[in-house]
Amino acid sequence: MTDTIRGNVLKVIDGGSFDIEVRYVGVNNQRAYRRWERVRLANIDVSNLDALAWLSRRSALAARLSGREVRCFVQERDARQQVVATVAIVNAAMAGEYR
What is the 3 state secondary structure string of the chain? Predict the structure, then answer.
C-alpha cells in the first residue's frame, strides 16, 4: 500500500519539486513524515534543462500548485530525503494527477 500525505503547497522550488505543509498523514502509512516536506514529482527530471526551460517549467508548476491543497502518493525518499510522489490537487475540478 502507498503512503499518502496531504497539505498546502507553500513554495514551488523548480519545475519538479515543491514544499508542502503536511496537514494529514494516512493512517496506514509505513514511514514517518515531518511537518514540512520537500516533494519531488515522480518521473520528472529538471536537472538537464536550460535556464529558459527551467523557468518555464517552474512557472507552470507554480501556476498549477501554489497555495493549493494537494494529496501526495508517496513512492519513496530520494538520496536527499525528499519525498518522491505522484500528486493530485484536492477538490479541484478536472485536477487529475500531475506527473
Answer: CCEEEEEEEEEEEECCEEEEEEEEECCCCCCCCCCEEEEEECCCCCCCCCHHHHHHHHHHHHHHHCCCEEEEEEEEECCCCCEEEEEEECCCCCCCEEC
CA distance 76 to 74: 6
Q: What ranges do the domains of the chain cover?
A: 3-98
Structure confidence by residue, pLDDT tens digits, 58-88: 999 999 999 999 999 999 999 999 999 999 9
Domain 3-98, second-level architecture:
Beta Barrel (2.40)
